[in-house]
Structures are given as structure tokens and as C-alpha cells.
């Protein structure tokens, strides 16, 4: 059973609506979306907040965050009589994920290998099309995009910002996937040449390392297939460095805001022990957590120092920070919205 604190029920406001959208580029399949329409003609109303899922947590995990953001924005408006502003919001399930039952139509194309139908660049192109179909300012200018992403969604956000830098104003990265890792090499190989058992921490054994490497290879290695048929095998080639390429020329020539949030190391270690992987706490504390934290530190260098923050440690949160503390995510997202608005 997952190591999770119970969360209070959060009522969803009627401003969050649910839609099925067919991309004009893929008209035979539907994407299931949750949306909030923007209000106002100034401030954050010209911003589109896009929530990007990981492989496991679907768009439903973002709904409490969206609701709490709307609540915070409403409270802020109440302190300024006559001013009502909110951004447009979008969460969606990719093909074959969550409420989106339809598969990616391109997965059945000629020469496609079963289980490896499309990659993250394909996801980026689909997202570009989806955004183009749902957004447009009254003056016909494209909206500024702010990503709130978790896990592999963070890689999608980075790739989108690389492909379309003139559109992205900010990224809130929640426990990003280590895109350049095979998730096995994190741990020393007890069968490797020159391995010294005496170099191990006191509470780690060669047997523990071998078992952990086996489990991680079977579950997390980029070659492992998933329900989306999302091919991760080239992800380390697409994003070989956590801090490169730099995103220093974004919207209107300005660097985007980048906030990096990581899981609570001790919480994550206990969660990993109690989860299906049953990863020993000593393994998480000596290898997984330090490696992940170094990756997060590098992510903060994607943008200019004045636009960067983190790594912020999400206390009492595991990998799915938006599930474990939606209030924190809403607070950080609203803070970034304010910063983007003030920077425009």
C-alpha cells in the first residue's frame, strides 16, 4: 500500500469543464480534457496553464490543484474590487492514458514496433496542435504558456520549450523524470569489474544492489513498454543533460521562469519500501535520492538565475507531489502566475 497521507475532499467548481477534443491532425481519436476558460482582459488572463501528466498519474490528479488555484485567485480578486482575472487552464490525458481510451492513431503506422508507437517529440507535436485548437486571445495573439508538470511531463515541457521557445513563459517542474538515466546505473553493479564490497555504506549489501537493479530494469528502464505505447528509448538522446540546452531565449526574448520541486527524501524512501518495488530505505537514501537531487539542482540552471528557484523540497510528498500536497502546488503555481504577469 502506498505511503500517502489522506487528503481532504476538494469540491470542484463549475468553472472546470470536461471535454473530448479531436485534433485536426488526428481526427479519428479523442483526447479527454479538463479546462478552465480565462476571465478578464489583463493580468493573468493572457496565460494558459497546461498541466502535464507523468506515465502513471492521469489528469484527475490535477483537478484538486486547479480547484485550489481558482480559490486562491478568487480570494486575490476579492481584495481588489472590480478586478476579476484568471488564466485559461488545460489538463488532459494522452492517448491510451486515464480517461482517454482512444489510442494514438499513428501507433499503427507502417514500420511501427508494437508497444513503441510514438515518442515524446510526437507528444510535443500533439500538444502544440491541442493548444492551437483551444486558445486565442481576443487580439489574435497566442497566449503565454505556463507548464505545471510531473515526472515525464517535465521532459515534455522542456522539449516543448525547446521546440517553441517563443511561447513558454514558465515551468513548474514537480519531481522531474531523470531523462538522461536508465534508472539502473544509479546503483553500483556488484558484478562489475573492480567492484569493492568494502566501499558500500554499512546498511547496503551487494545482494540488495543486485535485487534493486533487477527490479528497476524490469519496471523503470526506458525500454520497458507502457500502456500509452510511449517510446522512452530515445529520451536520453533528446535530453542528455539536465541543465542544457539553456532556455535563456523564451517568450519575447526573455528567459522563462523555472521552479524545480523535489520529493521529500525520507518520505519517498518509506513510500518506496511500502510500494510494489519494496526498495530498501538504505538504497533510496544512499543512491536514488542523492542522484535525483543532483539532477534537480541542474534543472534550476536551465534559465537565468533571476528566473530560477529550487530545488524546493515538498515536505511529506513522494513522487506524485500534486496528489500528496495539491495546496503546495497551487501556491507555487499562483506565485509563478503572478511573477509572469509582473514580468510582462
Please state the structural category: alpha/beta
Largest sheet, strands/sense/barrel = 8 strands, mixed
Name of the CATH first level: Alpha Beta
Number of domains: 1
Rounded to an integer in angstroms, the radius of gyration calculated over CA atoms is: 20 Å
* Mean pLDDT across residues: 92
Explain the layout of strands and helices.
Blueprint: E1 17-23, E2 26-36, E3 47-52, H1 63-78, E4 88-92, E5 118-119, H2 120-134, E6 144-151, H3 152-163, E7 168-176, H4 206-219, E8 230-231, H5 235-238, E9 257-263, H6 265-274, H7 281-299, E10 308-314, H8 321-324, H9 326-343
Parallel strand pairs: 3-4, 3-6, 5-8, 6-7, 7-9, 9-10
Antiparallel strand pairs: 1-2, 2-4
Helix pairs in contact: 1-9, 2-3, 6-7
How does this structure look, described?
- The protein is an alpha/beta fold.
- The protein has a single domain, classed as Rossmann fold.
- It has helices spanning 63-78, 120-134, 152-163, 206-219, 235-238, 265-274, 281-299, 321-324, 326-343; strands spanning 17-23, 26-36, 47-52, 88-92, 118-119, 144-151, 168-176, 230-231, 257-263, 308-314.
- The strands form two sheets. Strands 1-2-4-3-6-7-9-10 form an eight-stranded mixed β-sheet, sandwiched between helices. The protein has a two-stranded parallel sheet with strand order 5-8.
- α3 (152-163) links the parallel β6 (144-151) and β7.
- It is globular.
- The N and C termini lie far apart (46 Å).
- The relative contact order is 0.16.
- The mean pLDDT is 92.
- Residues 94-117 are annotated as: Disordered.
- One of its GO terms (molecular function) is hydrolase activity.
- This is AB hydrolase-1 domain-containing protein.
- Residues 49-331 form the AB hydrolase-1 domain.
Amino acid at each position: 500500500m502506498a505511503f500517502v497521507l489522506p487528503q481532504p475532499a476538494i469540491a470542484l467548481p463549475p468553472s472546470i469543464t470536461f471535454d473530448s477534443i479531436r485534433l485536426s491532425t488526428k481526427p479519428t481519436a479523442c483526447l479527454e480534457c479538463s479546462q478552465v476558460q480565462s476571465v478578464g482582459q489583463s493580468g493573468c488572463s493572457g496565460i494558459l496553464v497546461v498541466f502535464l501528466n507523468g506515465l502513471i498519474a492521469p489528469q484527475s490528479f490535477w483537478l484538486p490543484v486547479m480547484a485550489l488555484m481558482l480559490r486562491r485567485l478568487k480570494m486575490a480578486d476579492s481584495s481588489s474590487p472590480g478586478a476579476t482575472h484568471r488564466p485559461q487552464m488545460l489538463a488532459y490525458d494522452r492517448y491510451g492514458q486515464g480517461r482517454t481510451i482512444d489510442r494514438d492513431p499513428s501507433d499503427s503506422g507502417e514500420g511501427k514496433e508494437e508497444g513503441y508507437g510514438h515518442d515524446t517529440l510526437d507528444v510535443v507535436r500533439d500538444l502544440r496542435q491541442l493548444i492551437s485548437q483551444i486558445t486565442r486571445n481576443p487580439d489574435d495573439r497566442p497566449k503565454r504558456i505556463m507548464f505545471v508538470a510531473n515526472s515525464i511531463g517535465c521532459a515534455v515541457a522542456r522539449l516543448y520549450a525547446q521546440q517553441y521557445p517563443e511561447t513558454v513563459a514558465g515551468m513548474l517542474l514537480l519531481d522531474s523524470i531523470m531523462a538522461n538515466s536508465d534508472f539502473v546505473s544509479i546503483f553500483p553493479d556488484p558484478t562489475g569489474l573492480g567492484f569493492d564490497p568494502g566501499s558500500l555504506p554499512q546498511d547496503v549489501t551487494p545482494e540488495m544492489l543486485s535485487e534493486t537493479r533487477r527490479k528497476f530494469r524490469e519496471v523503470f528502464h526506458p525500454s520497458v513498454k507502457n500502456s500509452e505505447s510511449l517510446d522512452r528509448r530515445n529520451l536520453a538522446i533528446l535530453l542528455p543533460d539536465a541543465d542544457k540546452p539553456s532556455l535563456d531565449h523564451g517568450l519575447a526574448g526573455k528567459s522563462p521562469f523555472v521552479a524545480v520541486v523535489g520529493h521529500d527524501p525520507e518520505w519517498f524512501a518509506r513510500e518506496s519500501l511500502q510500494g510494489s518495488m519494496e526498495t530498501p530505505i538504505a538504497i533510496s537514501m544512499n543512491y536514488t535520492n542523492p542522484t535525483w537531487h543532483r539532477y534537480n539542482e541542474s534543472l534550476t540552471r536551465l534559465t537565468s538565475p533571476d528566473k530560477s528557484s529550487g530545488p524546493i523540497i515538498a515536505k511529506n510528498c513522494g513522487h506524485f507531489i500534486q496528489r500528496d500536497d495539491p495546496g503546495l502546488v497551487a501556491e507555487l503555481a499562483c506565485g509563478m502566475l503572478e511573477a509572469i504577469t509582473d514580468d510582462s
